[in-house]
Amino acid sequence: MSQPKIFISRLIPSLGLTLLNEHFQPDTWSNEMPPTREKLFEKTKGIEGLLCTLTEKVDADLMDSIGPQLKVISSMSVGVDHIDVSAATQRGIPVGNTPGVLTDATADQAFALLLAAARRIPEAERFVRAGKWVTWSPSLLLGADLAGATLGIVGFGRIGQAVAKRAQGFDMRVLYHSPNAKPAYGATSVDLDTLLKESDFVSIHVPLTERTKQLVNADFLSKMKPNAILVNTARGGVLDQSALYEALRSNRIQAAALDVTDPEPLPMESPLLSLENCIIVPHLGSASKKTRDMMSLLAAKNLVAGLRGERLPHCVNPQVYG
Ligand code: GLV
User: Fold this and answer.
1) Is 123 a catalytic site residue?
2) Tens digits of per-residue pLDDT, 199-246?
3) Cα–Cα distance between 246 and 227 in angstroms, integer?
């Protein structure tokens, strides 16, 4: 029997790659940079299985160019905003993602950013390297306390809840806003305005959808406390970066810490990079060795299941199964 044609769009960790190499002879894009759109079209023509990451835009045009034999799209990510899921559903193609295995790593990253912004770690580190540390001082680089402060979590899915769990250990009061999410880890459900009015820290954990696009806009920021710190480990598109720049520049809010931006990478001329009170790191939410291994394995398992006509272990559009 002939092998199904598969394209893997990035060099994923060996755990997932080994599984695929055992079963198939995948064509793997091994450059450090992702394939250009032209290359992606060229490489995927006639394939039955696509394993992609969030750097590849998988839209209806690409699906049509691949052809009707495409059986499965598996993304090594939990977010699937880079994939036109409804176009895949219309074509009967299951789309797989990798939830669960990255929950702790992403919650850790949100908490690391929260602490870094609260205690001004990157700014303090720049201070030392610039040779400005001349003495201990009672008022040098003072930050914010976590104990007793209120954390507002916007989006209370797996990752939002894991952040609440961590906040309990730091003696924080936790509020959340999320349609239909049940309370967990001592967090209290409130409407968004109450959350913004009462929170000293606001952490964003919603997927990027039409509904959440630029949710964090000038109006949202204007409702936050002047001492508030914003953390975004969700998607850059959830936030209006010009409005955030204005809010940070005018000290309308105290600080922000961003794991994600729009676009990525953030252009070096972005005004956000000129601000001392804005931390920006290059989309590292799930970037621990073990987590990326587990993500690659799950993405590989989704791909194998789809190629065999079996139900994907994690499918974002189960409607395709009728
Ligand atoms: C990372 O951002 C992911 O969606 O997995």
Assistant:
1) no
2) 999 999 999 999 999 999 999 999 999 999 999 999 999 999 999 999
3) 15
Q: Which atom of ligand 1 is nearest to the CA of 80?
A: 4
Residue 314 bears catalytic tag:
no
162-177: pLDDT as tens digits: 999 999 999 999 999 9
- Ligand 1: which of 286, 296, 302 to mutate, most ligand atoms within 8 Å of CB? 286
What is the pTM (predicted TM-score) of this model?
0.97
Which of 279, 282, 245, 275 has the alpha carbon at shortest distance from 261?
282
pLDDT at 23 over 90: no
The sign of the dihedral angle between the CA atoms of 274, 275, 279, 284 is negative
Distant-in-sequence, close-in-space partners of 206: CB < 8 Å, separation ≥ 6? 154, 155, 178, 212, 215, 234, 238
Does residue 292 have an active-site annotation? Answer: no
Q: 142-199: per-residue pLDDT in tens?
A: 999 999 999 999 999 999 999 999 999 999 999 999 999 999 999 999 999 999 999 9
**Does 2 score more than 90 pLDDT?**
no
Say how many Å lie between the CA of residue 80 and the centre of ligand 1: 8
- Is there an atom of ligand 1 within 6 Å of 286 CB? yes
Distance (Å, whole) CA 117 – CA 219: 22
Contact 73, 129 (CB under 8 A): no
Options 37, 42, 126, 264, the catalytic residue: 264
- Domains annotated on the chain, with CATH: 6-101+289-321 (3.40.50.720), 103-280 (3.40.50.720)
Residue with tokens 């001492």: 227
Question: Rounded to the nearest 10 degrees, how much is the dihedral formed by the CA atoms of 33, 77, 102, 15?
Answer: -70
State which ligand 1 atom lies nearest to the alpha carbon of 235: 2
